[in-house]
Amino acid sequence: MGRRHFSPEFKLEAASLVLDQDYSVREACESLNVSDTAMRSWINQVEAERSGEMPEARSPLGPEHRRIAELEAQVRRLEQEKTIPKKGYRSLGRGRDTTFSLIDRLREHGSVAIACQALGVARSSYYHYRQCRRRGIDAERLALRTHVTRCFNESRGSAGSRTLRTRLATDGVEIGRFKVRRLMQEANLVSRQPRKAPYKHAQHEKPDVPNRLARAFAVDRPDKVWCGDITYIWADGRWCYLAVVMDLFARRVVGWAVSDRPDARLTESALSHAWQQRGHPRGVMFHSDQGVQYAAASYMAALSRRGFQQSMSRRGNCWDNAPMERLFRSLKSEWMPRGGYESISAARRDAGAYLMGYYDSVRPHQYLDGDTPAMAEEKLNSLSKIA
To answer: Which of 15, 89, 261, 352 maximizes the CB count within 10 A of its CB?
Structure first.
């Protein structure tokens, strides 16, 4: 039998059973089927982190152990002052279970009734919590919550209950969205919500290149229609620019490029990358907005050399290129740091990790019934071989 491996989240939850929930080491070990040595090691590490120490040879188990140390310092001050102000703990937003755990600590030095009143919970709720806690550990739920937390962290905090449910199903775990939401609440997970973008609609058309796509975004095979667009990224104290090419069949990113200048060379680089990645296809319709980068003579010539047919959105109508708008919305709301990047090279690496890694191969898409773009293309290839 191979050696078992435990994630940091599991170790932290296991140690908290002894440190915060009045379980003995033996009870916790039996419930979770782990060794006494491992359990005590986790407990010692969590205790060290809560005291403000950073482990030298091990990865930290608690990402907020400094915050927990501050919390315990507040508890000691409250014990000395014999008062429990409401803002002492509510500001940390750590949930009802942590509030009840604080009452457990404070009850040794004062009245349970006063602690409950100060923290805004009913005594009956607190005693019900203690009674339920002694009924046993739900090891299966603990493992499930750990799984949800891991998927949430992989998304950089962007995944909501719908996305997490689909991710779990991909891993063979079938549970409902409501249960996922409950597990997120138990783990204090809140997804990042994108801001609504204001869109403008222009009144004048540019008739040079027609809108051949006409919002017919449902495509029956790969390399039939590609879309392209440019967005901006803050890096090294200035703007840099990202050009992306997407295959509409499975919404798969097939090419991209980053530059400090939003010129035709940027869009040509992204097009060249896509063309190389997809094995030099011909007869592709390429759709974009009417930006100068796509209307440049050099770019039109690059499309013509490859046997591509060009299509352009109506001026100012971003919904004519909606899949690209949706991609950039996801990139900025789910992945990019709010403060930007330290350098253009860092922005380039991180954009590539999202576009060709997370977005194409990990992130489930509602349009694809929960599949990733890579999975959707693989399914089509499998069906083609059978036929």
So the answer is: 15
